[in-house]
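Researcher: Here's the sequence for the chain we discussed earlier.
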Amino acid sequence: MDRIEQLMKDAKPRVGAPEAAPEGDSARSIAFSTDPNLVRLAGRTPARRNAVRATAATVLAAAAVVGAVVVGGHLMPQPAPGPAQTGIPTPTVSASPSPDSPRPSTAAPTAPPAKASTAAAALSTRGVDCTMANIDQQRNDQVRAIKAVPAAERHYYKVLGCADGWLAYSISDAGVRALQLDGGNAWYKIARLQNGRFLCDVRQEWASVFNWEFQATNNQGLTAQQAMDKEFADKGIPVELRPELVGDGPAAG
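Model: Thanks. This is the structure I predict for it:
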């Protein structure tokens, strides 16, 4: 039995026959309690009993509140547990795009243009590089000496093309003036591969052909290409090599 129940039990009055009571006290009733601190006064409720009752009411109210909280906590709906994670993510399905919405580009990124290889761009024929350093000229002078193009003069010249042991090159206007050459630059020079070097022999008919500017002004009614091909054939230069040696020439008309 706890303290509160004991106090409530002791608070109930007990009526008994007094051994000797004065006449003036006949109207009084005496309450007996096991609590030595409880004293009944005539016509009054002991303060101790009031305190016990207040305490009991407070305890009962608190118990009712706690019970409501506990019951409410059990009755309150709990949130449903989420799906268990299995370690494998579930793919998310996105909504289909609207027909009017822009579609992502699927084109592969454009690679930057590759730089031209110097080795691949270098001209060669039959294993010999087509450069001015590999060209010899037989001069039309009294000595008829065969000499390589001097290094100090090579910047005046330009290799046009080469193929199958043939090479064509030209000289600039500045080169004509500096070297005091007769006839200006109206011709393309032609050299042939001999003993690992290209030789332009001015004594040979194939050593030069008119350039494209002069071929376009022919008086035979031919196009520049027809005139060039005719000169190639007349001088013994393979006509099929013309595009590789001197190019395609000006556009027709």
